[in-house]
């Protein structure tokens, strides 16, 4: 009961009440008898016995007896109610569901119909104005197509003339129209009277019958419109609104703030409108104008958007006067427009056209997911055969494993300090050592123990900076040049020609794969130390002993199984001469500070086509390398580079792998290269995805490799798109060429396999 409520009904006192009332009389102080429990206030009863006894607190008593306390209590209740109401309202209004529902309502009731009206207005302007002609003329002018420009100019003039004549017709027409109306009316009356006369003669009606019938019909129409006009109006308006809503909903441009939830914030899939809007807002005027003036709002620039790994991919054909490089230079802006970070946006410019670019956009945060462990850490991994296997360095951003062919390739890996260069480089050398036939000469010019696990495995191990070590490293390079020359001589003396094969390079053959590795190589080329035998060690000219030796190795060592692997911090012209940089076939870079350093690390071609180690995040993308593998690896779609998240192998784990490599060498009997036989037809049938009609040959090669695993030699590094096509031709599987790419037909694969199975 509220404190101000009263119960006017007299209540019958119970025995206990009476007993109590007999002890406590009104006006009597009861303090003494009740001090232990509570203060008893006598209720203001004027006469008669107490009808009820109740224990109340001081506050309750005030509420029962004081008007002011009751008013204060009421106000407090109002305040609490108001605060609760405000809180509930705020929660409800700011709740995600309310926002979504609000956006849904506004989108469907306002944004779509208005957008649809915009489309109709644009179409109307196009149909009735000169804007279409002007747009086409501007486009032709941009394309430099003068014939088309003149043609559209002529059409524009003709259309303007036609429109002028129509306007003049309207000026002249009122008198003509009035005359015509009068003539038609008189004619109609005469006709109806004639008809009436015939009917009257025939005794079938009155003379004015037909005229009366026409008047009745007109009266009925007026009545119908007056009676049902409201329905017609509402029906027509609803149909019109539905038409505008549908037009607005299906146009490719986003409705901005009103857009459905999947196209703002944490975007998972790309939609054409998002890509077009992101391109439009890049700040390239020509691109923006081309999109705005396009009847399709720029959607025609895009191919179908497809899922690829943990992201989506789309091919973009830019309008004339816009180049892929212009867009790639605005990587950060584009990434921001797509609600992504720069490293989550990958470009591959088509080798065939400056205006074609493939854009891959990672799902938000997908590139920060944990990588699987390196296969090298599996205690059962190895021994490897570098003639057969590829090095499982990591996975590319699209989630495909990257296997690097390191045989007869020189390699350069660069990166800013503390980005994981040593770890990424060391995993390569660990893998090489898991082939018992590989030999290693190693110089670590930092000497912090990062490479000490190779003691016992490396025939030469130099650790530490300082003049002595620079001299020793320079000697090591020159010794490698001498070894190279000796191998050539021996090979010639043996009367052999052509490549050195696996059988020729077994341990003890003298042609074992030799890997000459220098970590922190920039110190060597940047040093100002003179060799005791004369000449500078560092420098970038012809006088530099180290640079001369490196160049000689790059030029000729590959063919005789001598490899040069360099790992360098921030390369500059001073510490990594161009003649040394350019000789490496495989080039890779971790995060570097600027595009110009990226160019030194990876070369102009890779950066020009979109490779961007400078777009990686310092510290966050440790171990992520942008790889330009040259011809050592078939990249899908003929790409020049890929981004690899390398598997991390810690220093302790590196010791375990090195121990395993040592054990393999102890029982060095070269294992036979036995490969399980696989069936290409079955494998091809397995790698086509449901609904795929045809797939590029190089994509199939990647998929087959993934299917068979890194140890299956037949799908190893020599298994290229060309090889696959040859095998398909032998099996009579249909291959087609389109836009410069080769495609294998899935239908043909299944048909050939079905025929084979039936004949078996
Ligand atoms: N792939 C990786 N994932 C996570 N952390 C890594 C990865 N690679 C390296 N790191 C960590 O980054 C730190 C630096 O690694 P590393 O020594 O390999 O870098 P660096 O580029 O060689 O540095 P510096 O050139 O200064 O020697 C190490 O503490 C290592 O634990």
UniProtKB/TrEMBL annotation:
ATP binds at residues 415-422. SUPFAM superfamilies: P-loop containing nucleoside triphosphate hydrolases. Residues 1-10 have a biased composition (Acidic residues). The chain crosses the membrane at residues 181-202, 214-245. One of its GO terms (molecular function) is DNA binding. Residues 1-49 are annotated as: Disordered. PROSITE patterns: FTSK (PS50901). Keywords: ATP-binding, Membrane, Nucleotide-binding, Transmembrane, Transmembrane helix. It comes from the Bacteria. This is S-DNA-T family DNA segregation ATPase FtsK/SpoIIIE. It comes from Amycolatopsis sulphurea.
């Amino acid at each position: 009961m509220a404190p101000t409520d009263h119960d006017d009904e007299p209540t019958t006192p119970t025995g206990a009440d009476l007993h109590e009332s007999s002890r406590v009389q009104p006006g009597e102080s009861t303090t003494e008898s009740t001090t232990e429990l509570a203060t008893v206030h006598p209720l203001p009863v004027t006469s008669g016995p107490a009808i009820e006894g109740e224990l109340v607190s001081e506050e309750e008593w005030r509420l029962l007896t004081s008007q002011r306390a009751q008013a204060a209590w009421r106000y407090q209740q109002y305040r609490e109610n108001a605060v609760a109401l405000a809180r509930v309202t705020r929660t409800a209004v700011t709740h995600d569901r309310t926002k979504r529902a609000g956006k849904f309502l506004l989108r469907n009731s306002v944004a779509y119909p208005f957008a649809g009206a915009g489309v109709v207005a644009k179409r109307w302007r196009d149909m009735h104005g000169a804007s279409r002609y002007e747009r086409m003329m501007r486009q032709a002018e941009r394309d430099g197509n003068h014939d088309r420009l003149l043609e559209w100019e002529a059409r524009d003039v003709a259309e303007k003339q036609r429109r002028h004549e129509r306007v003049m017709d309207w000026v002249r027409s009122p008198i003509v129209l009035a005359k015509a109306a009068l003539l038609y009316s008189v004619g109609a009356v005469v006709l109806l009277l004639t008809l009436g006369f015939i009917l009257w003669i025939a005794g079938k009606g009155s003379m004015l019958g037909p005229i009366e019938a026409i008047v009745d019909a007109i009266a009925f129409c007026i009545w119908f419109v007056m009676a049902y006009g409201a329905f017609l109006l509402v029906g027509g308006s609803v149909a019109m609104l539905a038409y505008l809503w549908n037009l607005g909903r299906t146009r490719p441009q986003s409705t901005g703030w009103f857009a459905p939830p999947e196209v703002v914030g944490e975007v998972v899939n790309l939609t054409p409108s998002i890509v077009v809007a992101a391109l439009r807002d890049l700040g390239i005027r020509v691109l923006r104008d081309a999109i705005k003036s396009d009847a399709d709002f720029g959607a025609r620039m895009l191919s179908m958007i497809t899922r690829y790994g943990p992201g989506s991919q789309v091919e973009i054909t830019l309008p004339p006067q816009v180049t892929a490089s212009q867009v790639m230079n605005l990587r950060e802006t584009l990434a921001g427009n797509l609600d992504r970070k720069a490293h989550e946006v990958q470009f591959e410019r088509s080798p065939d056209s400056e205006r074609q670019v493939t854009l891959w956009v990672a799902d938000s945060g997908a590139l920060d997911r944990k990588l699987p462990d390196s296969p090298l850490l599996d205690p059962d991994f190895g021994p490897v055969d570098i003639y057969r296997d590829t090095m499982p360095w990591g996975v590319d951003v699209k989630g495909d494993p990257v296997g690097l062919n390191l045989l007869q390739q020189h390699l350069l890996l660069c990166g800013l300090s503390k980005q994981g260069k040593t770890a990424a480089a060391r995993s390569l050398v660990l893998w090489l050592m898991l082939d018992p036939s590989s030999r290693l000469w190693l110089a670590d010019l930092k000497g912090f123990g990062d490479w000490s696990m190779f003691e016992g495995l490396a025939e030469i191990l130099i650790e530490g900076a300082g003049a002595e070590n620079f001299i020793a490293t320079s000697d090591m390079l020159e010794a490698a040049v001498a070894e190279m020359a000796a191998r050539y001589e021996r090979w010639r003396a043996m009367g052999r020609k052509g490549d050195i094969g696996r059988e020729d390079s077994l341990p003890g053959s003298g042609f074992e794969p030799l890997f000459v590795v220098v970590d922190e190589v920039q110190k060597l080329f940047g040093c100002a130390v003179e060799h005791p035998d004369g000449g500078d060690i560092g420098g970038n000219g012809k006088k530099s002993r180290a640079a001369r030796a490196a160049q000689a190795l790059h030029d000729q060592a590959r063919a005789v199984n001598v490899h040069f692997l360099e790992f360098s911090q921030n390369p500059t012209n001073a510490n990594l001469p161009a003649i040394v940089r350019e000789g490496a076939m495989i080039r890779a870079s971790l995060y570097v500070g600027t595009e110009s350093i990226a160019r030194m690390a990876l070369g102009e071609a890779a950066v020009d086509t979109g490779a961007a180690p400078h777009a990686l995040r310092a510290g966050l993308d440790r171990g992520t390398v942008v790889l330009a593998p040259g011809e050592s690896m078939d990249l899908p779609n003929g790409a020049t580079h890929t981004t690899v998240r390398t598997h991390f192998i810690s220093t302790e784990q590196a010791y375990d792998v090195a121990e395993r490599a040592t054990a393999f060498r102890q029982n060095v009997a070269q294992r036979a290269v036995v490969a399980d036989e696989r069936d290409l037809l079955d494998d091809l049938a397995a790698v086509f995805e449901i609904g795929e009609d045809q797939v590029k040959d190089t994509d199939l090669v990647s998929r087959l490799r993934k299917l068979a695993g890194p140890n299956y030699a037949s799908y190893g590094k020599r298994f290229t798109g060309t090889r696959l096509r040859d095998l398909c031709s032998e099996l009579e599987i249909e291959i087609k060429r389109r836009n410069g790419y080769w495609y294998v037909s899935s239908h043909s694969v299944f048909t050939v396999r079905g025929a084979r199975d039936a004949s078996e």
